[in-house]
Amino acid sequence: MTRIESAADGGDEGLMPEQELPFFVYGTLRPGERNHDLFLRGRTASEEPASLPGLVLYQGPGYPYAIEAPGTSVGELVTAGPGAYPRLLDELDRLEDEYDRVARDVLRADGTPVRAWVYVITGAEARRLRSGGHPIPGGDWRD
C-alpha cells in the first residue's frame, strides 16, 4: 500500500497529503508509455520535462524502481487538469501501491524548482537495490 510521507518522516511541516501538487513521473506514466495512456491521457493541464536530484532509477521488470540516493533522474512534471486531481491521486496511489508517495523539489528544464509528488521504493527493497540492483545510466529510463 502506498505510504505517504509525513512531516516526521522528513516531509514538510504543514504539507497535507491532499495538497494538489503536480507529479514527477519517470517510468510507465511518462508520455508515450503504456500507463500514461491508461491513467493520464486527457486528464492533465500540463506535462513538461523535468529532473529530480537525489533520485536514482534502477532497472525493474518492465518498469523502473526509484530510490532516494545521490544522483539525478529524468522524467516529466505532470499537473492534473481541472477537477481531475482527487480521482487521479487515488488511482496513482493504487497503481503505485508498492511505493511511498513523497513530496520533493523537482527541477523544470529551466532550473526552476517545483514541489511535486514522486513515488519511491523504501525499506528492504531499497536496500536490496542499493546492494545488488542495476542503476539506469544517466537516470533516464527511456535511454
Automatic annotation (TrEMBL):
Family annotation (InterPro entries): AIG2-like_dom, GGCT-like, GGCT-like_sf
Domain (Gamma-glutamylcyclotransferase AIG2-like) ranges: 23-142
Top-level taxonomic group: Bacteria
Protein name as catalogued: Gamma-glutamylcyclotransferase
Native source organism of the sequence: Streptomyces beijiangensis
